[in-house]
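Exercise 7. Given the components listed, write out the predicted structure of the assembled complex. Treat all entries as one system.
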Amino acid sequence: MAQFQKPGWLENGLVRWVDHRLPIFTFVSHELYEYPTPRNLNYWWNFGSLAGIILVIMIVTGITLAMHYTPHTAMAFDSVERIMRDVNYGWLIRYIHMNGASMFFIIVYIHMFRGLYFGSYKAPREILWMLGVVILLLMMATAFMGYVLPWGQMSFWGATVITNLFSAIPLVGDYIVTLLWGGFAVDNPTLARFFSLHYLMPFVIVGVVVMHIWALHVHGSNNPIGIDTKGEQDVIPFHPYYTVKDMFGLGVFLVFFSLFIFFAPDYLGHPDNYIEANPLSTPAHIVPEWYFLPFYAILRAVPANFIGEWSTAWMGFILIEAKLAGVLAMFGSIAVLFVLPWLDRSPVRSSRFRPMYKWFFWIFLIDCLVLGYVGAKPAEGVYIAIGRIATIWYFAHFLVIIPLLAKFEKTKDLPKSISEPVLGGGGGSASAAASKPMEKA
Amino acid sequence: MNKIRTALVAGVFAATASLGFSSANAAGDAVHPPEHHWSFSGLFGTYDRAALRRGFEVYKGVCAGCHGLRLVAYRNLMDIGFTEDEVKAIAAEVDVPAEPNEDGEIEDRPGIPADKFKSPFANENAARAGNNGALPPDLSLIIKARHNGANYLNALLTGYKDAPVDKKVPDGMYYNTYFPGQLIAMAPPLSDEGVDYADKTKATVKQQAEDVVTFLTWAAQPELEERKRTGIKVILFLLLLTGLLYVVKRRIWADVH
Ligand code: HEM
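Answer.
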């Protein structure tokens, strides 16, 4: 069948000498040349490798920026402008880094929705999925702190709003905020520690990504029909099939990315961040970067009094402030992803065989877009109501709809195997190809 | 069929997302500025050199009285066609503090091309004191620091009007529908023949506004021409590479499909 052969270079004398002492070449051969991958992965499976590549791009451009950047409130803004104007290709490096953060989130969000659609979070990939959620959290922290570094108006005021949220935590809240600030307001010590952490966190992400891929390689990729691979006829070696497919995907992505870098570098940003931070002048609307908007909407969706009254009425002695409730809802929106593998007990992974889940998946996607839209709007008028409904739907999707679907949905019959996707009937191009011996030219 | 739907979904996603961004940035209650066609807009945009030069004359002759341009150095003017001698002469018109002399005193020296543009006021308080309490912002980044910056500034500079009767305009304020809140503390800065252009172009308010907007766009984005030029090359290269990768991919996958 397909060649799951060790590559020729493993026979090279030097390679063998090293490999005998440190089996790094065996490792590469095993994870790339012999690693079996479902033959039917579609282009939604490109986004994982893209995320890895953009992570490397962020680290390389970030380290280069750090060589010219000054983490001091009096100099940060000007040092970024010096990068833009006087450092050779500084504008290019900064625009790659700035837009790279947005690309990273676009890629990771698509990657996650892919997982939701095809049920990739289900057994035996729960830990793989949870490590992904950890990566998302780390990315959010990294991007938030990175956005503070250029010390523009949105940097400063965004940092003020978000760090203040932690004060809602009972007992230790104020202490945590003081610790984050390094003082009693967002100021120079805040900037310095955010810079330090912004440099550190991407490497923590690399560590978690390694575990993520390690977990992936234990059982291999899920696939669009969501059934386990049944044998050699269902799989192909990762290299060269998926390496070349990923390279092609990378090319398409880089064209998209380049359109932003070279022709609309500030499109995804906020103009206020080209005004130096001024603690005495609050911007008309403080809005986070686009990738935080859905979470921002959930944060603001909790009514000022509702939870307070509700909780006093029901729990009597525990009084949850509205602010805390908002913060809990926001973190809850991610926490619920952690437990998703146990909320969804349906044995069928792929939406292709889940006629009802499929619809709810699309409704959920739209719900997230609505939340993002509301997050960009001032919290007033009709947006408050829309934000609340969308927030309730967000949680209902995971906590009510998904568990119920697992119980009551009538799923379609699953194919016998990947190489024979049409139940009963033969034919189909894939099965034809499977029966033909695979010899690569 | 499936592919088409996927593409559709992606399109809707992108459109909704971009809607979100633009509304995220929507400012105040100001009138939407009209679109103007700029030499520097579009994929192949470049700065109109003559407009840049005239725009500099407007900045220097009018705006520099109140607004700084602190991120731009005099030497940068050489990038837009000023000769070294011209730049030296322009820089020398200002006095800046020198290094301490042998006695430790700080004297003034004439500016040199490496100096940044000298701001008109020593600090924010001085600027406010000279402007009825309002602060004229530094203009180095103003085009990037406002939504739709070039069109906005062009509209602002040419958009002063008599206030409607029911609108009270306090002393020292002026009515301008493009400014958020409609009341701006900057008197209409431009007037017909307010500058004498060296190239003898007729200095209407409209002409001056367009020129100074072009100049300030350059001040905010001096890399724009190089950026777009590089972008065209990078994208052409990537399209070619991606096309080739597609062919290679098809070849390698031929035995699987
Ligand atoms: C997970 C990967 C990363 C993400 C998501 C990220 C995100 C960001 C964001 C959103 C900004 C603000 C950009 C702007 O508005 O100008 C930023 C700035 C910055 N980042 Fe990162 N970053 C990452 C990795 C790194 C690394 C590894 C370094 C190395 C030290 C770094 C160094 C910097 C510096 C010096 C700035 C300030 C300069 C500027 O604003 O352009 N970043 N980052």
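Discussion: The longest helix of chain B spans residues 224-253. The first strand of chain B starts at residue 95 and ends at 100.
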